[in-house]
């Protein structure tokens, strides 16, 4: 019996061991089935086809790419909704309890009840965290944080233990510190809860600024605290869990903005000590922001380095310009000069993108702010020199940096003209020399356009030349210096014409000819010249000059030389009829006859029609006054004889008229 019992025991132990191994194997297979990819579908039956010798085997079709499954959108579950509403109702009940039960219950009892409820909510959150109830854990933590805020606010409002004697600003700062400390401690105790680190992060934001006395909060100390808080937000990215990093980024931006909006106006309008302290704080913060870019883990969550360095440098430069402006005109000149130096330092190639952005941003802000202060103070002399000096960094950038060459070329060519206008506004230059300098600057711009034809900077130089010429004309016209206006237009027009010929720009050629013709007209009007040919002949010459390309290509006469010969001859023919002089009559008849003959020989319609029309206008205009003096019988006889001749030779004259019209019509 003993032996049988031993055998039975051994068999039972063996069976139990087999069962455990079976269960373990089944669990392993189930885990492998959940993680392994789905097997490919079984191939369908392919019929066997006899292979033709030397026939190419078709390649199998390429598999279609399978789109990755879309991640499901997060949705609120019924459990989360119920938990959120429950936590909200608990907090509302606590607020109502504090507000309503004041007249019925003592402060101490209220404090005990509220503290107990808050501690219970926090403890329940920790209990739910240990049980793995994530939604319940977060809801109870949010309720506990809200109850904690209510407790701290009620303690001051109800005067618990003399708390109402503490100033509200200081109490608010201390409350933020207490709430942040409790949340941080609870977060370390229950590491799975997201609410506690979030509450600690939110509570820290206003704490430092609220703890400052009111007199210091609006000064450099307040700026330093706000920017320091933003720095802590950025550094917290190294410690926070991934879900809270966007929150830290979102909090750092408004806190930084608040610090900048407090520090920059203080640098401009504050007392000298506060101004320079604010500038120093902003400069240190800018340097710290640039230094953070060296940490890859932090830089990955920040904007691109060139954006960070550019914005930081611009803010520090704005503050520095404000502090320098407090020194008067010398400070403004120093700020603008320092800006030009920084812009010049940015011109050489090979500078890193972040450093280049910082130099350009800081230089632009300093130069612009200094120039604005000088303009507001009415210091035209230093401002004109600084504007003229701005051509140096712009010119260097145009030469050394092809990427910004068009804009830099335009700026370099526009700077001297702007300096002349500033000097004119400050009565440092008279209108006549100012207009001449502007015209010469426009001519130089067109010369650059001609030299750099077919390059990207050609357009910028041409625009600068056009604006300079327009400014020269307006300045001279406003001063009533018509002779100077004619000279300026001639200078700019000649330069623009040369550029148009070199670059083959027809619109520019039209503008150049218009400038030259207008210059001739203004000069003639200024000299009180009333001869029509002084005005018509320059216009005709300009039209003929514009028609040279059409003449070279053999265009029709009315599109080429037609406008020129019409403008040159027809006004003079009309004047001959109204105010006849021997010289003008001979000249008009000779030119008209020459155009008629030339049109006939060259088979060009426009010279022939204009010349013949001018001759007809002159003959009829000159004979018309004598028509009433002819006896009536002569007129009647002449008309009769003319009708008889026409009637007798009607068919022949009709054929000749048709041939004449066809001959003229077929001219080009």
UniProtKB/TrEMBL annotation:
Q: In its keyword annotation, does this UniProt entry include Lipid biosynthesis?
A: no
Q: Which residues cross the membrane?
A: 81-102, 108-128, 140-162, 168-187, 194-215, 221-240, 247-268, 274-293, 327-346, 353-375, 381-400, 430-451, 458-476, 482-502, 509-527, 533-551, 558-576, 582-601, 608-627, 633-650
- Keyword annotations: Membrane, Transmembrane, Transmembrane helix
Keyword set includes Secreted: no
**What NCBIfam families does its record include?**
SCO7613_CTERM
The protein, known as: Predicted membrane protein
Record the organism.
Geodermatophilus saharensis
């Amino acid at each position: 019996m003993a032996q049988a019992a031993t055998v039975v025991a051994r068999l039972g132990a063996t069976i139990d061991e087999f069962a455990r191994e079976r269960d373990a194997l089944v669990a392993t297979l189930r885990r492998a089935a959940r993680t392994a990819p789905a097997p490919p579908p079984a191939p369908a039956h392919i019929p066997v086809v006899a292979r033709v010798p030397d026939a190419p085997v078709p390649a199998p079709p390429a598999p279609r790419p399978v789109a990755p499954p879309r991640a499901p959108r997060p949705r609120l579950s019924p459990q989360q909704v119920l938990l959120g509403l429950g936590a909200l109702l608990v907090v509302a009940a606590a607020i109502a309890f504090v507000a309503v039960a004041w007249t019925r219950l003592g402060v101490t009892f209220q404090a005990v009840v509220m503290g107990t409820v808050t501690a219970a909510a926090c403890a329940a959150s920790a209990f739910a965290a240990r049980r793995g109830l994530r939604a319940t854990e977060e809801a109870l933590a949010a309720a506990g944080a809200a109850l904690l805020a209510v407790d701290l606010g009620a303690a001051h409002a109800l005067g618990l233990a003399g708390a109402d004697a503490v100033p509200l600003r200081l109490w608010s700062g201390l409350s933020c510190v207490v709430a942040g400390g409790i949340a941080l401690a609870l977060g370390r105790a229950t590491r799975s809860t997201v609410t506690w680190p979030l509450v600690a992060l939110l509570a820290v934001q206003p704490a430092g600024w609220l703890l400052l006395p009111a007199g210091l909060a609006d000064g450099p100390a307040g700026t330093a605290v706000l920017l320091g808080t933003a720095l802590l937000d950025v550094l917290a990215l190294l410690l926070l869990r991934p879900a809270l990093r966007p929150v830290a980024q979102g909090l750092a931006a408004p806190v930084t903005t608040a610090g900048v909006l407090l520090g920059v106006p203080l640098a401009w309008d504050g007392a000298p000590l506060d101004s320079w302290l604010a500038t120093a704080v902003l400069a240190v913060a800018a340097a710290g922001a640039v230094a953070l870019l060296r940490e890859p883990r932090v830089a990955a969550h920040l904007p691109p380095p060139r954006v960070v360095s550019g914005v930081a440098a611009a803010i520090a430069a704005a503050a520095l310009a404000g502090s320098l402006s407090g020194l008067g005109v010398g400070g403004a000149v120093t700020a603008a000069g320092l800006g030009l130096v920084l812009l010049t330092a940015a011109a050489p190639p090979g500078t890193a993108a972040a450093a280049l952005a910082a130099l350009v941003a800081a230089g632009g802000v300093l130069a612009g702010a200094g120039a604005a202060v000088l303009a507001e103070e009415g210091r035209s002399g230093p401002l004109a020199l600084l504007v003229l000096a701005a051509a140096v960094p712009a010119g260097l950038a145009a030469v050394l940096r092809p990427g910004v060459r068009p804009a830099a070329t335009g700026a370099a060519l526009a700077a001297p003209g702007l300096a002349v206008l500033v000097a004119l506004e400050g009565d440092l230059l008279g209108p006549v020399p100012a207009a001449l300098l502007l015209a010469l600057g426009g001519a130089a711009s067109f010369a650059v356009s001609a030299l750099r034809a077919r390059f990207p900077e050609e357009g910028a130089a041409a625009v600068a030349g056009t604006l300079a010429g327009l400014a020269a004309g307006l300045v001279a016209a406003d001063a009533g210096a018509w002779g100077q206006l004619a000279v300026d237009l001639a200078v700019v027009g000649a330069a623009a014409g040369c550029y148009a010929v070199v670059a083959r720009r027809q619109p520019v050629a039209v503008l150049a000819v218009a400038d030259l013709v207008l210059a001739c007209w203004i000069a003639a009007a200024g000299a009180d010249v009333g001869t029509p040919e002084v005005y018509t002949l320059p216009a005709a010459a300009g039209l003929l000059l514009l028609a040279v390309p059409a003449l070279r290509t053999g265009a029709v006469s009315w599109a080429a030389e037609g406008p020129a010969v019409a403008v040159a001859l027809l006004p003079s023919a009309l004047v001959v009829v109204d105010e006849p002089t021997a010289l003008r009559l001979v000249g008009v008849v000779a030119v008209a006859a020459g155009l008629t003959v030339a049109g006939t020989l060259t088979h060009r319609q426009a010279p022939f029609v204009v010349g013949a029309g001018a001759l007809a206008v002159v003959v009829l205009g000159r004979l018309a006054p004598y028509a009433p003096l002819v006896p009536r019988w002569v007129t009647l006889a002449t008309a009769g004889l003319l009708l008889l001749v026409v009637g007798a030779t009607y068919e022949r004259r009709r054929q000749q008229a048709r041939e004449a019209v066809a001959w003229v019509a077929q001219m080009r």
